[in-house]
Every structure is written in C-alpha cells, then in structure tokens.
Amino acid sequence: MTGSDRLPDDAARRATADYIASVQRGDGLIPWYEGGPADPWDHVEAAMGLTVGGRHEAAEGAYRWLADAQLDDGGWPATYTGATPGVDAHRETHHAAYPATGVWHHFLATRDRSFLESMWPTVEAGLDFAVDRQAATGEVHWAVAPDGRPYEDALLAGSSSIYKSLACGIAAAETLGRPRPDWREAYDRLGEAIRGHRDRFDRTWDSKRDYAMDWFYPALCGAVTDETARERLDGDRERFIEDGLGCRCVTDEPWVTVAETAELVVARAGAGHRDRAETLLGWLDRFRDDVGGYWTGYQFENDERWPARRPTWTAGAVLLAADALTGATPAAGLFLVRGAPGPPTDGA
Predict the structure, then answer these.
(1) CATH code assigned at 15
(2) Bridge partners of residue 124, in order along the sequence
(3) Quick check: is 331 in a domain?
(4) Distance of CA 3 to the CA centre of its chain
(5) 207-262 confidence digits (pLDDT tens)
(6) Mean pLDDT of 30-34
(7) Which domain holds residue 310?
(8) Are 211 and 253 in contact (CB under 8 A)?
(9) Is 156 contained in some domain?
C-alpha cells in the first residue's frame, strides 16, 4: 500500500472535523481535549480543521470566540482553563498573529467577504501586537509578561509562524482595500532574519536546534523556499525521522508526534517533495481512532501512545495536511504558496 492509498478520504476528513466539533465548547472555544486547557494558537489550528471538514458554522464560532476574548492590546493570555485565562497570563506574539492565518484560510475556503470584514479588527489588532514586538534586527520577541514587559528573545519556529501570518494579513488587507505597507516591511525584515541570521534567535536560553519545529518551520511557513528548503529538509532527515512512524518532537527522545509529522507533510509538499509528503501522511493512519481523532504521539521504545490524549489541534494539523495533498477545498494551497499572496483573482 502506498502513502497516497492511505490519505484520508472525504468521509474520514468529515469524521475528524466532527471529532473536533464534539470537543468544542458552546461559546466557541476549542480545548485541547474534552475538559482540558486551551490556548489561542492551537485553537486556531483546530478551527482550520473544522473548515477543512466542512464544519463552517463551528469554525466561525471559534473565530468569534477569539474576537470576544481578545485583550485591549491585541493579544490573548497564553493559556485558558475552561474559558478562564490560566495562571500564567503572559501573551505570546505568534498566538496573537495566528488568527490572521486562520481567518484568511476560512475566507479562501468560503469566499465569505462578510466574515473577513467582521474579523478584520481582530486580525489587525493581533498582527499589530506582534509587529510592535519586532526587534530592529527583524526577529519578533516571543512574548509579553503580564505587566506588559517584553521578553526580549525570539523563537525561530514562533517567528516563522508570524511570517506566514503576516503574509495572510497582507492578503486580507489588500482584499478589503485596507493596505498595510508597514506589515509588508515587517514581513520582509522578518524573512531576512529567519533566512540568514540564526544568531538572532535563542540568545538567552538553550538552542532549540534539536526541536523538529526549528528544523522545518522556516520551510513550512515559506521563509525558505525551493532548493534551499529541500536542502534544509533533507539535511536533518536522519535526525528527526523514524521510518514508518513519523517525526520526532526532539532528536534525543524516542517519541514521534502526529501533529509535527502532519505539519512536516505540508512543508515537504511545499518544497516539491510530494511523494515523501504522501508517505509521511500515510504513516499517520495507524494513530487514528475509531471516531476520527488522532493520538498525540507514540513512544516507540516503550511501545505506547503518549500522552494518551487525542488533541483537537492534532486533528486539525492532519486535516490541513490531507487538504494540502488532496486539494479538497479552495484553501488547500494556503501553506504551499510562497511569498505574501495578493487578493484572490476570481473577483471574490
């Protein structure tokens, strides 16, 4: 059986979206799992999964929750217990930026301009929160303390996510006739930092080079492209890939994670390695449960699922990967497009 033979079909994608919707609260918030915590970034990832699976009303409810919960400075507390912010109420810049990616994704799938208009204030404030924390050298400081003090260091994966969110925000701004040239300038400076200045990240803590997200996020988010992306992904394959299982979270742990493998699928596809992307996604079929959820990961030395949870954001990541390979929705190419996209060309 080839990787393409095991890609989720329409019924499987709908079942996975239904699983996410079954965990979603009545107010729109999508916890990691039933009764569990939540955070803004994973909430958006799960909401995009709802869109891919055709659960548009549920996805829009998730975005309305973001609009209602957004703080006056444009950010969100990093964690929620139920609908209440967690004890550590710092705000992370990639969390604030990521709604731009989700909202643009939903617009591409539905071409609902009224939805894009209604979410524009949320998108704009969130991206402004992130851009306001950009260093003069291009990277974006990763968080703001509860008292408003910035944590002046940057994560390569977090800044890469912001890079993609800026691309989506720029496209939304131009579609609505509200151009933000300052965002494009920030986008260009951030891309330069990601591509050529690794020393601007992890300055005050241990390097994250052994984390998979540091490896493939610059390619996933389009900061590195073409042959450079392929070389990056091929260069560390042996460190991160466990054949037949997936992508390790970190190089020194015998643990593959479904969400990171799914995101790597999209990075591979965007770099032109479709066959490898299909193989990776096919490996994940073994981690799917009977109702459409996906287990977090697999500790292969102990031969056990760990943690024994089925996160909604993991399901969302798999749905995004499947869509990127099957082209089932009009938003399928979102993470395959390189550069800051312009408005759709079909008059939407």
Answers:
(1) 1.50.10.10
(2) none
(3) no
(4) 23
(5) 999 999 999 999 999 999 999 999 999 999 999 999 999 999 999 999 999 999 99
(6) 97
(7) 4-326
(8) no
(9) yes
